[in-house]
From TrEMBL:
It is an enzyme of class 2 (transferase). Pfam families: 2-oxoacid_dh, Biotin_lipoyl, E3_binding. It comes from Fodinibius salsisoli. It comes from the Bacteria. It catalyses: N(6)-[(R)-dihydrolipoyl]-L-lysyl-[protein] + acetyl-CoA = N(6)-[(R)-S(8)-acetyldihydrolipoyl]-L-lysyl-[protein] + CoA. The keyword Zinc-finger does not apply. InterPro entries: 2-oxoA_DH_lipoyl-BS, 2-oxoacid_DH_actylTfrase, Biotin_lipoyl, CAT-like_dom_sf, E2/Pdx1, E3-bd_dom_sf, LAT1, PSBD. Its EC number is 2.3.1.12. Residues 98-116 have a biased composition (Acidic residues). Its cofactor is (R)-lipoate. This is Acetyltransferase component of pyruvate dehydrogenase complex.
Amino acid sequence: MAIKVEMPKLSDTMEEGVIAKWNVQEGDEVESGDIIAEVETDKATMEVEVFDAGTILKILAKEGDAVPLGKTMAVIGEEGEDISDILEEAQSSGSSSDDTEEQETADETQEEEDYDPVFEDLDEDGEQQTTADNGRIKASPLARKMAEDQDIKLSNVKGSGPHGRIIKRDIESYEPSKAPAAATVSREDKEHRVSQMRKTIARRLAESKYSNPHYYETIEVDMQPVWDARKQVNEISETKISFNDIVVKACAAALRKHPEINSSWYGDKIVEHGDVNVAVAVAIDEGLVTPVINNTDQKGLQQIGQETRELAEKARNRDLQPEEMEGSTFTVSNLGMFGIEEFTAIINPPNACILAVGAIKEVPVVEDGEVVPGKRMKMTLSSDHRIVDGAMAAQFLSTLRQMLENPLGLVL
């Protein structure tokens, strides 16, 4: 009996998967447990295995195709087996979008052809006018709408439709006149396919930004003590500690003192998490991913530094597993290495807050009445006002600053 290989749910937020690579071809024999394809999800590239032995009778999606969750990717069965019913079912399930496209095309054609020659006037020489008696330019409804959307003046477009009517193709092919420019080179636009990861990042951040009432508080920290302490630690430590490792550790310690910041909103309840799991934003080509350091408050600086580097490397190689990006209770996003002094970050749901960390800047400061060089860093906390009030956020930032300006407490 033929068996459908359907797009599996490979992550908790997955809605569709893109076929990154087929490891089999039609006619190949497979055994249970064989990896037949690699699928790009919203979080990582995952392997798809089969649970039944047989012959690959049909592959229904090409490499690069997006397949919705639960839809058929391939069919396995006995060689020569009739699978017409399965193919018909798969084709009918995807026909709705095709029907929509066909209807849209038909509507466009009808709009372009649906004109009344009774209202098309000729000028004195028998040539077709492009305006009606009321001075309105003759154009199909579709062409008029397209011109409006693209801010194109119909009076600048020459119609190629019946009796000089402006139609869809005239708008599509319209090129506005340009003043001559000296020594200019026209370069082609580049289109980039939106990956499943980028789609999910866009969707989740849009939901967070417009669903969660964000507000922001910024604080400046004297980083000279951290600067000196890090230098001393790295002289004797096998694992080099970064400034971000120290910030993450300080956040975890501050969250333990302010558990209301370590919370999530679930509609009819607020969950104050028992564990402190800090996510660290990592930049990759397709956006930001947030691998999680579990039980951050119970780990030392060296362990935090080692885990952060391992997770960041996995992220850049697209090897992060879904469970390594789940369960965060707070997020740190650091753009200081790019010279960004101050910024605001969008909350990583379902976290209550995210900390945006800027660069350490050498600035003149006043100490004991004298101007001396100092090292300062700005941090901005984005908070969900449904969970965290302004005073709560301010108290957390005050504790965090105190810990960073007295870093010895972080290693005791």
